[in-house]
Amino acid sequence: MKKLLPLAFVVVLAALLLPSEAQASTPSLARLAKTVAALQSKVATQATQISRLSTKLTNDEGTINSQAATIGTLSTDLASAQTAISGLQGNVGSLTTTVAGQTATLTNAADVLALEPWVRVLSPAPNTVTGPTIVFQGCNLQIKSSRSESDDSGLGNLIVGWDDPPPGLAEGLRSGANNLVCGDENSFSGNGGFVAGYDNTVSRFWASVSGGSGNEAVNDCSSVSGGSGNGASGEDASVFGGDANTASGMFATVSGGEGNTASADHTTVTGAIGVTESTGYGWSAGGNFHNP
């Protein structure tokens, strides 16, 4: 029965395809058989093609499904990668800012880095000194104010110690430049000088007080070496110690004692009490008297 169905189909198809004139006459069996055979061959060929196309369709559907799954995975990976890239871009921006800041820092620190060949840090310090100790070796160390040696910038000073200001400090009493300052409560309005000790004052060019307390060197190149309450107010005058001594003449000198005064130019008082040397090129030593 199954074999007759294709044959009947072919016969019907042939009847539809034959011209109307042919339908009026009965075809020969040989001719009909030949036609049926040709149609069967064509049907078989098309069935084979359909089968092949069906198989290919099935395979393509599998490939499409597999690729769709892959695309889904890739989409998820792409979304994750995009999130990661966004985070990395933020990190790059932050790092760029950091690098710019560090580059600026390195540029500003170029002079400090250049010190490396001449600077060492010793810890523990040598020679029983409490350390660490910073050593400058094979170089010169210069400290300068911002403008010139005679400026009033208050810069270029080398300050050793706490350098506490004196109580009730008047404005300008610590405005000097290029001085060496040691001790406490000292004033330095002069330039190129040296002050050490306690509550001492240098107020002119190249003046110095090297110790003691309450001493003043207040003229150019004047100096007080120690003691208490001494004053060198003459140009190039000096007091070498004692108490309440004054050298007010140019090139005048008081070398000790108490309450002595060398008021004339080129005068000297040595080791006396209450002596006033007021004669030019005069000299007094010892005793307790007034030399007119």
List keywords for this structure.
292 residues; alpha/beta; 9-stranded parallel beta sheet; 7-stranded parallel beta sheet; 4 helices; 16% strand; disordered N terminus
Topology overview:
Blueprint (H helix, E strand, L loop, with lengths): L3 H14 L2 H5 L4 H80 L1 H4 L5 E4 L10 E4 L21 E3 L19 E3 L4 E2 L5 E2 L5 E2 L5 E2 L6 E2 L5 E2 L6 E2 L5 E2 L6 E2 L5 E2 L2 E2 L2 E2 L5 E3 L1 E2 L2 E2 L5 E3 L7
Parallel strand pairs: 3-4, 4-6, 5-7, 6-8, 7-9, 8-10, 9-11, 10-12, 11-13, 12-14, 13-16, 14-17, 15-18, 16-19, 17-20
Antiparallel strand pairs: 1-2
Helix pairs in contact: 1-3
In summary, what is this structure?
With 292 residues, the chain is an alpha/beta fold.
Report what the structure shows.
This protein has 292 residues and is α/β, with parallel strands linked by helices. It has three domains: 29-66; 106-140, no CATH class; 142-292. It contains four helices and 20 strands. It has helices at 4-17, 20-24, 29-108, 110-113; strands spanning 119-122, 133-136, 158-160, 180-182, 187-188, 194-195, 201-202, 208-209, 216-217, 223-224, 231-232, 238-239, 246-247, 253-254, 257-258, 261-262, 268-270, 272-273, 276-277, 283-285. It has a nine-stranded parallel beta sheet, with no helix packed on it. A seven-stranded parallel beta sheet has the order 5-7-9-11-13-16-19, with no helix packed on it. Helix 1 packs across helix 3 (29-108). It is rod-shaped.
